[in-house]
Specification:
The structure is a single chain. The protein has 2 domains: about 130 residues, Purple acid phosphatase-like, N-terminal (Immunoglobulin-like), CATH 2.60.40.380; about 150 residues, Glutaredoxin (3-Layer(aba) Sandwich). It contains 5 helices and 17 strands. The N and C termini lie far apart (about 45 Å). It has a 9-stranded mixed beta sheet, with helices on one face. Strands 13-12-16-17 form a 4-stranded mixed beta sheet. Strand 1 and strand 2 form a beta hairpin. By secondary structure, the chain is α+β, with helices and mostly antiparallel strands. The protein is globular, with a radius of gyration of 20 Å.
Length: about 290
């Protein structure tokens, strides 16, 4: 397998070139002054979800070839190397493929960012060459998100008995079962809470928004959880106005979907998943001993 060697220090021109290249390959200067073909890794997360606070941050990547996403051809694991803004290595290892219950194979790489600024991610595979991507963790003081240890806001969410002003409480073809209790009621109770916010019928990335709700429904049915599970939609009235966000979205400080928060019985954030996750990651989040 090729090694994702450190190579040249990241330049702004290289960063802009790769981010503008989309799924195409680029000829980049190698260590010996020649060139090597590298493709842009597909970035399946928003930089809003990562901050430089020294704690491991979840990043999600996918690989492509000339035909698009690798799909079933995606290798079971890939080697990665992460460089900080100065070009120094801060993390390296192997990331395994996630594909259980989702249509899009992806790789999770957790990195403890020590500073803000552009970080370079290099990936190497045995059969599909090298890929490169970039992430820009922000300052924790500027983040609008809630992180593990934060107290989540107590917000009214729609239920079967009270739509709380939301025209369609669930845009799934068959309404999901997670509208039996409002978030504020769950936080006030002695139970932990799982909050998932997604809009299956109106999401711009359908391969993410639908499956994550479906696997939560399956997990809840197969292994009943001693937790309140709540589904929130993104829009107040998606049939007429996609600019009016539901109160839960506004309160969460999030500018993307889907996302999931796990809260303990006091309403404190235990974990969070963003954008895409498979059954294995979901089970890991739900199994946290600190929920109850």
């Amino acid at each position: 397998m090729d090694s994702p060697s450190s190579g040249p220090i990241l330049s702004r021109r290289r960063f802009l070139g790769l981010t503008g290249a989309g799924l195409g390959g680029l000829a980049l200067a190698g260590c010996g002054g020649g060139t090597e073909e590298e493709r842009a890794a597909s970035k399946f997360f928003s930089d809003q979800t990562i901050v430089a606070d020294g704690r491991p941050q979840r990043t999600v990547w996918s690989l492509t070839d000339d035909e698009g996403n690798l799909g079933d051809l995606a290798p079971e694991s890939i080697d990665y190397l992460v460089l900080d803004p100065s070009g120094s290595e801060i993390s390296a290892g192997a990331a395994r493929r996630h594909l259980d219950g989702v249509a899009q194979p992806y790789y999770r790489v957790d990195v403890a960012f020590g500073e803000t600024g552009v970080h370079e991610f290099r990936f190497a595979t045995e059969d599909h060459g090298r890929h490169v991507g970039f992430a820009v963790p922000g300052d924790p003081a500027d983040s609008t998100l809630f992180w593990p240890g934060d107290t989540f806001p107590s917000v009214v969410t729609p239920t079967f008995d009270d739509n709380a002003g939301i025209e369609r409480i669930c845009t799934r073809t068959e309404t999901c079962p997670f509208h039996g209790i409002s978030l504020d009621q769950s936080i006030a109770s002695e139970r932990g809470t799982v909050l998932i916010v997604t809009t299956p019928a109106f999401c711009g990335t359908v391969f993410m928004c639908g499956p994550v709700l479906e696997i939560l429904i399956e997990e809840a049915a197969e292994s009943p959880l001693d937790l309140d599970i709540i589904h929130g939609e993104v829009y107040v009235d998606p049939d007429t106005d996609l600019d009016r966000l539901a109160p839960i979205v506004e309160a969460s400080g999030v500018t993307y979907e889907p996302y999931l928060f796990v809260l303990d019985r006091d309403g404190t954030v235990v974990s969070r998943l963003d954008h895409i996750w498979d059954r294995a990651e979901l089970r890991g989040a739900l199994a946290a001993e600190s929920i109850n």
